[in-house]
Amino acid sequence: MARLDQVITNIVDIFMEYADDGGKKRQLNKEELKKLFEQEIQSPDLKDKISAGDIEEAMEMLDKNHDGEVNFREFCRCVSDLAKCYYQKKTGRGGKRGKGKSQEGEEGEG
Predict the structure, then answer these.
(1) Domain boundaries, the chain
(2) Helix or strand or coil: residue 88?
(3) What is the pLDDT of residues 14-45, one digit of tens each?
(4) b/e for 65-78, b at 16 or more Cβ within 10 A?
(5) Where is the segment annotated Disordered (predicted)?
(6) Which of 67, 71, 74, 98 has an alpha carbon 20 to 30 Å from 19's alpha carbon atom?
(7) What is the reported pTM?
(8) Check: CATH 1.10.10.60 for 3-91?
(9) Which helix (H) or strand (E) holds 84?
(10) How far apart are CA 96 and CA 103, in angstroms?
């Protein structure tokens, strides 16, 4: 399987695995989201972006429709944000998210 194919299928499979662990199917509650982050993010470059202590803030940020759970679209937004953080770390570009000027390629995002 090509690398991008694998990344896409992994994102879907991981979401479905944790979203089926109680509560509404195909949505992540706070505990499921916390478990997913703790078990599936091991890179120090990413792990410090969303820590167990910040789970409330992460949930607020991700839960755009304010239903107390994270749907697949909201989860994809999170994965995208983590990818951007990792890209900035690898390239030395950017700074703290949401601070200062817009980053290249991020104009118009919210």
Answers:
(1) 3-91
(2) helix
(3) 999 999 866 667 898 888 888 888 899 888 87
(4) eeeebbbeebbebb
(5) 90-110
(6) 98
(7) 0.71
(8) no
(9) helix 72-91
(10) 10
Query: How many other CB atoms are there within 10 angstroms of residue 55's CB atom?
Result: 16
User: Which helix (H) or strand (E) covers residue 85, if one does?
Assistant: helix 72-91
Whether 82 contacts 61, CB under 8 Å: no
* Three-state DSSP state, 46: helix
Size of the chain in residues: 110
Per-residue pLDDT of 51-92, as tens digits, reads 556 677 777 788 887 888 888 998 998 888 888 888 888 888
Angle at 105 between CA 103 and CA 110, to 5 degrees: 75
- Count CB-CB contacts under 10 A for residue 97: 13
SS3 28: strand
- Write down the residue that tokens 């803030």 correspond to: 57
**Residue given tokens 């991020």 in the structure block:** 106
